[in-house]
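Lab channel / #folding
Pinned by the channel admin:
"Please post every new chain as: sequence first, then the structure tokens as a reply. Keep commentary short and put observations after the output so the thread stays searchable."

First post following the new format, from NK:
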Amino acid sequence: MYNLKVIIIGAGIGGLTAAIAMAQAGYRVEVYDRVQQLRPVGAGISLWSNGVKVLNRLGLGDQVAAIGGCMNTMEYRNHRDEQLNYIDLHPLFEQVGQRPYPVARADLQRILLRACGPDRVRLGMTCTEIEQDASSATAIFANGHRATGDLIIGADGARSTLRNQVLGQSVERCFAGYVNWNGLVPAAADLCPSDRWVIYVGDSKRASMMPVGGDRFYFFFGAPMAPGTQVSPADLRQELAQLFQGWPPAVERLVQRLDPATTNRLDISDLDPLERWVQGRVALLGDAAHASTPTLGQGGCQALEDVEVLSRYLLTTNIGVADALERYQQARQDRTAQLVLKARKRAATIYGHNPAVTQQWYADLRQEPPSAVINALTATILAGPLA
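Reply from TO:
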């Protein structure tokens, strides 16, 4: 199909990448987002090799490598500072043919916005309704603007408003039972080796650091907590200091060095797998279709895989737009559903939904051979569309 006009709702990672892919296919592209200023949700993101390969295919590989951290090893330690497991990641790189890149979300968004072309993106535009007929689809915005194209991509995130219109009903997100704190700090040897992803676990909590570009670490904490709690930035460091009191010195130093004003504090939730992502000429993409907990590090990568598959079907099928969107849905639903449910199960294990299961996981970490970790990561990565 040629000379399509594509309307994209959402200018996050999935929406901007979709805009780049569609523009490279020769389609006319317009991107709309309700925010007044693009500010990524979360400080960092793990771009595993399956996601990096999509960006490589779009010609962005060198730019992504430049902002990515050099992550050569993984290490699990417990809250008593005992090593549980140590994994050299080089065998993974050799098996999948690509190094992963942990990146700061703001850095990645800048690259994507530049490649998309800022003139294609309109901010402060809240989509309130979708209309479609046999030949077109129209997004209607709160200010009265109407954008008509051959198809509409709903990439408006976990709180998607387009999702309700595609499904014909509202869908509640599922609270995962924990709160996540995340941000960026300057890299330092007394926090973590510069090429290592270290994860501390214990007492149904975890704390982690991984390298990103700019000589920084992306960090996150997680702890079981009721939904809806709020803490002011002024009290955030004290909250974390209490939750992780007595943890290893590197964790306590991290708490003292983080900037509370730029640290995100988020209730974590996901979505039950949806029965459909597509209605006629409208398709969901990324978190709008399959929001996941971050426990597998695959959320952003799955949005990138969505873009690869959707653009492929639009380019290679000629029955029509609706047919291409249905094929996209069929190709993606099972894979993303499996990963959402796997991430949900892992979150339950990490954060003590069943304390006996969590304790067994700690014991298993001591015994698990590094090759088993590598093989599990490889299987997830190579199941994607760009193996």
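NK: The chain is about 40% helix and 25% strand.
TO: also worth noting, The mean pLDDT is 96.
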